[in-house]
Structures are given as C-alpha cells and as structure tokens.
C-alpha cells in the first residue's frame, strides 16, 4: 500500500490541475460529448451552458451558508478548546491519522460544512503537537470524512425529499428520513465506514523517509482583529452579551417549536438555522460572531465563483440529454437486484460533471425514478443510491476539497493520491450496502 500510494501521489502531483482549470476542462469536455452523443449542435450546447450558468443561485447561497456557518461554529472558543485538548493527547502519527479521520466522519455525518472545516482545523491542531506525521495524509484523512455526508443529517437529497412540496413529490410523495437516513442499508454503510476508514487511512502512512512534514508557517494561527473599544452606544452594543442571549433565545425557541410540532425533521434551512444560532451563542458577543463570519466567508470563494460553471455544465448535461445518456447506459444493464448498485455508479459518474447533491438530484431523478417505476424498485433507496454516488466521487473531485485545502494551505494535487484509494475502499463498502441490504 505504501508503494501504491507513493506512485499515486507522484502521478497526481504531476498531472492534476487547479480546480478552476479542472472545471474549465470539464466544460469543454461536456460540450464535445454533447455534440458527439446527442443531437445538439455546438451552438445549442453553448446556449444550454449560458442558460444554465445562473441556475443554482439559491442552492449556491444555501451551500455558502452551510459552509460559513460550519466554519463559524468550528472557530468558536468552545470548539477550539475542545480541539486543542483532544490534539494535546495525541502522541503518535498513527494515532493522529486514526483520530482525525474518526472526528471528521462524525462531524461530516452531522453537517458536511461543519465537518469539512472542523476536520481541517483539527488536523492543523494535531500537526502542532505531533512530529513526523505526513501532513498530506493528515489533511486527506480530514477530508475523507466527507464521503459520508450524504448519508448523514445534512444530506441534501434525503432532506429535500422529506420536505413538503418537493419537486418530485407527485412521483414518490414525501419520503421521511426513517426510510432513507435511518434505513438498514444506510446505517450499515455509515457504521462500517466509520469503524474501518480510520484504520484504512492509517494503512496508507508512507515510510518515514517519504513523510512530508508541514511547513511551520502554515500552522501559525491568525488572530481575528476586533475593532477598538469605544465608550459609545455602538461599541457597547457590539460587545453586549444581552443581544446574544435574546437572539439565541429566539432561535432556540423557534427550533424547539419546530421539532415539537414536526418531530425530528431536518432540511437544509433547519440545519442552517441550528448552526447559525449555535454560532451566535458560542461566540458570546455580536462583535466576535461578525468577525468570525467575515473570516468564514473567505472559505466560500471557490464555491461562489465555480458553482456557476458547474451550473452551466449541468445546463448542458440536462438540456442536451447527455445526463440521460449516461444514466441510460447503467439502466439498460440493470435488473431489479442490481438497479441500486448501477444507480450508485451512474451517480458517481455524473458527479464529476455536476458536483452538487441538489443539482445532481435534479438532473438524475427524472431518469432514475422512471426506471424505478418500471422495475418496481423502491424510490427511497433509489434516491439514496444517487446521494451516495454524489458523495463517493467527491473523493477525487477537487471542488469540495477547496475549503479544507484553504485552511491547510495545500493544493488539491497534494492529497488526491491518497483520496484515490479512499475512493476504491469506500466504493466497495457502499456497493455491498446496496447489493445485500
């Protein structure tokens, strides 16, 4: 394994481009595939791209808030203290890899934005305490927890179809999370990955002579600058705990009412509300919360300026029928037993071109739900197969690694050699879940 990961890392370092270059290459590739595999002309494909370019604005805003709110909460004094305490008890590189993977998995299961950030911050904190740990693998391990996100509490597909009036409600109805997130097959996948992935990552540790340690300058903690204290109403109100208590009480009151009236029902808006309210409370004063928010927004730059390109790709994939062509390849070789597995594989392929859970669901759901109807397959399990396919190939789709890489001070090519093997390993577990449960 050490030899294989070394070869993989060498290849990635030489050939994997920057994520922006990656999305531009994908744009050109999809245009050419659309012209080749469908009846669309080059002008048609360009038109589809332009029409779709702004098609994910509302979803982009939700994703920005998820990531920013997770970053704010992870940077609160309460969580920082917890991270520092945990990191100080880690003494060896092996333990560092195992613990950071497990923490990332738990955090990403709760909320993907929170998990991406908390994993990277924890990895940096561990690097301050543990010598001779490979920093690339440490950050790859922190990112690897992201593979579990769509089977967790913030999974956009299961939360979307659990919401009244969702786009495909006329086909599948409102699907409660007890038959998606808390189904037997999903719990099997989640639990097995949680219990084994930390040790798989530890297995990839390079030989001591090949270890790449962190540049100490990357570990320097930036202090969040606060405005100077002034003796006036504006300054006092910014430092007031009273406002935090009042807003916190309103937010918690709303959330309690929501869960009492609707049960444990989560959607993206509820998840965002939870993390914003907790972020406000844990930072203590409005001034500290706003400073943390300003710092958090920096991590969303890649999402803001690359999402339109992926929306354009999604526009081409959908309007040209290219997504239907891809999905059809897998549907045509499926039967009632293998349908979920091939749905998972097809979603993994489509995710390269549409790395958005909600966006991918919009693209693939019409094809896969129609196929599920003809085969008599379960709609909820079909949706989760798409969800897991979306999460799975994120391991080698550099877009979602951007926040963690920004925190760590690394490039995508630094970690993707390890992530390739994480993709293979988790793919086996997910496949077993959909074939035998």
TrEMBL record:
Domain of life: Bacteria
TM annotation in the entry: 20-40, 52-74, 94-123, 135-159, 179-200, 241-260, 266-286, 307-331, 337-354, 415-436
Pfam families xrefs: SCFA_trans
Keywords: Membrane, Transmembrane, Transmembrane helix
Keyword rRNA-binding found: no
PANTHER family according to UniProt: SHORT-CHAIN FATTY ACID TRANSPORTER-RELATED
The name this protein goes by in its record: Short-chain fatty acids transporter
């Amino acid at each position: 394994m050490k030899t294989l990961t070394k070869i993989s890392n060498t290849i990635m370092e030489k050939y994997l481009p920057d994520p922006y270059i990656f999305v531009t290459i994908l744009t050109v590739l999809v245009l050419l595939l659309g012209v080749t595999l469908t009846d669309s002309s080059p002008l048609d494909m360009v038109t589809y791209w332009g029409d779709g370019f702004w098609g994910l604005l509302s979803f982009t805003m939700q994703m920005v808030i998820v990531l920013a709110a997770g970053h704010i909460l992870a940077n609160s004094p309460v969580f920082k203290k917890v991270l520092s305490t945990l990191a100080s008890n880690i003494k060896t590189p092996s333990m560092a890899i195992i613990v950071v993977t497990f923490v990332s998995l738990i955090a990403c299961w709760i909320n993907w934005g929170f998990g991406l950030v908390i994993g990277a911050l924890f990895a940096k904190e561990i690097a301050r305490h543990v010598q001779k740990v490979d920093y690339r693998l440490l950050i790859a391990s922190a990112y690897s927890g992201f593979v579990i996100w769509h089977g967790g509490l913030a999974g956009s597909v299961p939360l979307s179809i659990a919401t009244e009036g969702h786009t495909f409600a006329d086909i599948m109805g409102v699907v409660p999370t007890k038959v998606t997130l808390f189904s037997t097959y999903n719990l099997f996948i989640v639990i097995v990955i949680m219990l084994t992935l930390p040790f798989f990552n530890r297995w990839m540790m390079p030989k001591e002579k090949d270890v790449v340690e962190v540049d100490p300058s990357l570990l320097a903690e930036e202090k969040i600058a606060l405005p100077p204290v002034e003796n006036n109403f504006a300054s006092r109100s910014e430092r007031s705990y009273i406002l935090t208590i009042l807003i916190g009480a309103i937010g918690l009151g709303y959330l309690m009412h929501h869960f009492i009236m609707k049960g444990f029902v989560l959607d993206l808006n509820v998840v965002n509300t939870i993390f914003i309210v907790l972020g406000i409370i844990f930072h203590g004063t409005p001034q500290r919360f706003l400073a943390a928010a300003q710092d958090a927004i920096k991590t969303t730059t890649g999402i803001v300026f690359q999402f339109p390109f992926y929306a354009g790709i999604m526009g081409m994939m959908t309007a040209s029928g290219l997504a239907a062509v891809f999905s059809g390849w897998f549907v045509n070789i499926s039967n009632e037993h293998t349908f979920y597995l091939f749905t998972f594989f097809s979603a993994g392929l489509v995710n390269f071109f549409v790395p958005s859970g909600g966006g991918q669901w919009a693209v693939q759901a019409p094809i896969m739900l129609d196929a599920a109807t003809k085969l008599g397959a379960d709609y909820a399990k079909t949706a989760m197969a798409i969800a897991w396919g979306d999460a799975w190939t994120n391991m080698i789709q550099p877009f979602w690694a951007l926040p963690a890489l920004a925190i760590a001070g690394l490039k995508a090519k630094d970690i993707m050699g390890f992530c390739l093997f994480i993709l293979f390993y988790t793919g086996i577990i997910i496949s077993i879940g959909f074939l035998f449960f």
